[in-house]
Amino acid sequence: MSRAAAEAADATDELRSFRDQFELPAGVIYLDGNSLGPPSAGTLDALREIQDEWASSLVTAWDRWVALPAEAGDLLGETLLGAAADQVVVADSTTINLYKAAAAALGLRPERSVVLIEAESFPTDRYIVEQLAGEVRVGSIDALDEDVALAVFSAVDYRSAARADMELITGAAHAAGALALWDLSHAAGAVPVHLDEWEVDFAVGCTYKYINAGPGSPAYLYVRRELQDVVSQPIPGWFGHVDQFAMEDEYRPAPGVGRFLTGTPNIPGTAAVAAGVRLLGEAGIDRLHQKSKVLTDLAIERADALLPSLGFEVASPRHASRRGSHLALRHPRADAVCDALARDHRVIADQRPPDILRLGFAPLYTRFVDVWDAMGAIESVGRGLAGG
Amino acid sequence: MSRAAAEAADATDELRSFRDQFELPAGVIYLDGNSLGPPSAGTLDALREIQDEWASSLVTAWDRWVALPAEAGDLLGETLLGAAADQVVVADSTTINLYKAAAAALGLRPERSVVLIEAESFPTDRYIVEQLAGEVRVGSIDALDEDVALAVFSAVDYRSAARADMELITGAAHAAGALALWDLSHAAGAVPVHLDEWEVDFAVGCTYKYINAGPGSPAYLYVRRELQDVVSQPIPGWFGHVDQFAMEDEYRPAPGVGRFLTGTPNIPGTAAVAAGVRLLGEAGIDRLHQKSKVLTDLAIERADALLPSLGFEVASPRHASRRGSHLALRHPRADAVCDALARDHRVIADQRPPDILRLGFAPLYTRFVDVWDAMGAIESVGRGLAGG
Questions:
Q1: CA-to-CA separations, B7 to A117, A164, B17, B371, in angstroms, rounded
Q2: Are residues B363 and B295 in contact, defined by beta-carbon separation less than 8 angstroms?
């Protein structure tokens, strides 16, 4: 694809108008929406609406707000996760939700004590299972056996963007008598996810990446319907009580996924999640995924054309259906590349140690010319480092 | 005090200009700031600033944001809690912080398994200790003995507003070899708290009441300096890691109170906490407390004058220094009184089962005439119920 072809692809992109919902800084090519998505007009409107309600209705606004964690969860589940209603709540952080979900899963397999986790997991996922499991086994589904209570995997690897076969892995876990907990942080809003169809048990993820809900916006948690009323989670709080305002001394968990709520949920953040999901829903996850594949294919094509002699190596799967919406380039000075891209080219990416330059291509607002120009900037930086 | 005297008290109130920082709905007397404080101009500015940073700096704003939980914690500690720097973080919810702090405390007393909690505790506090303790003992400091690992008390009772003698209780816990964990939710911003001086071990609290940081704004957690490096908490996340962006497989807790951070903190909420604390700091907690005592004294004076024959009973301590900044009135139909106050008099209070009408008098914005008029409204509602 030439730059003219990239321009042409933008001109005919049926998602092109979604970029108008974002006021991105002029002259910046933003390739870190997989870390922190930018604010959309709809999200800022939602935040303003909550502020107006707070100011005008004061505490009485809680009559409406109290349902938001479940409502935003249902919307997110239906729009992006392939989850029917009453299985998702928006609350707490991914860390906290991982803790609750992993503990809940272990409680369902009291006769087993091993948690299986892949070697490439996000650090927090590893820390949480190390904290909760009798024994942590690091490996793939080949390491499943009758001792494994729970398998914890990422739907899209935070470094390589490798996309897991969620249906296959979940099925393998179930065949071994284990439960499956998925971290969807780098997947939701980027690739289609079908939690119900794939019979996933638990899933968690953050909302500040492709869902664009803002820094530290609340996370989500999915619990398969069949498990909800037999499962318990370890952090009992008043929002998870069956009769919250009765102020009972005894904790009686709410029916369904509501028992996974804990303390008072962050309301502006929850509203921002709902707004972010609505915008993704208008675009449609299948169209977003299709554009994501073409964007990342173009990035690889340009990387192959420009970068091999400069010490870069594509560290993401080459087949588009096996990737999320970001791309990893390995380079021994990934941190210096990342800094120079921002400083000299206004291309914002990020890096993950020891040697991964990470480029996010959020299909809601990333243009084909952005990919073209960013890869040219990487070539320029690479030449500077090679010659310097 | 006559209504004219109440007007005069407002005219000479040296805190009267702070009300101008709040755009309260016209015609409403808001007496539920002890549940959800209203937005101040400074808080809305702080939220706007975060939104602007998010839009303009995108992910690079994290360079500044990453320090906010500690910075807001230091400010809160110094301004309202009597805590020197590096002992408070703003993060998660009160429920989550209670869980972390109680588990951390129990880890410091492995040879003991009893947690002592007062009968009047907020429900979540009870649920958390029931979850974590080997045995829960409900009672006062008279029930301390060599089996008690931890005493969990509220600085100000959420129903009665009774103020605990934190120094006495903490000292008694220590004398018995136990640790002390305080819930400051109804105290911070209402009464002076001196955590360092009183040698408190752990404290938690919310920020959406007197600190006015908005619905579901993040909570805080205090850990006494001497305990910080020997204590561990049960929810390891990347924000509590000593080298967060090294992405290590092994969890190595950050030094100090930073190890009590977990997942990605909510940044708008954290900025709102700092803004709320700054405003309270400008007023000064001693002046706020002084005004609070006079406001609640006036409310009791009017209750005594107007309400005894209508089935109301003052259920808060009568001595001002033994109260927080709200007042509890017992009435067999507290819920109906609360509804009628809002509907017929635009006085917003709340009620707690079975029979408590709760009136909050936040000294930043509550006027003496508000107290006078609200008590008149309660009399009117009480007459209606009595005669109806």
A1: 67, 69, 14, 11
A2: yes
Rounded Cα gap, residues B202 and A92, in angstroms: 22
Residues of B designated as active site: 122, 183, 208-209, 358
The Cα–Cα gap between B109 and B194 comes to 24
Chain A CA closest to residue B61: A215
| Nearest-angstrom CA–CA distance, B386 and A178 | 62
Share of chain A residues as helix, strand and coil, in percent rounded to the nearest 5: 50, 15, 35
Size of interface A-B (CB pairs under 8 A): 223
Tell me the one-letter amino acid at B241. Answer: H
Q: How far apart are CA A44 and CA A41, in angstroms?
A: 5
> With contacts defined as CB-CB under 8 Å, which chain A residues touch B249?
123, 126
Question: φ and ψ at B347, to 5 degrees?
Answer: -105, 115
Q: Is the pTM above the cut of 0.95?
A: yes
Q: What is the ipTM of this complex?
A: 0.97
Residues 6+ apart with CB under 8 A from B89: B69, B70, B73, B220, B221, B257, B258, B260, B261
Q: Convert the pLDDT of each residue in B207-248 to its tens digit.
A: 999 999 999 999 999 999 999 989 999 999 999 999 998 889
Q: Is A265 on the interface with B (CB under 8 A)?
A: yes
Measured CA distances, B183 to A120, B35, B273 (Å): 39, 15, 17
Locus of tokens 């990453």: B66
Strand partners, A360: A326
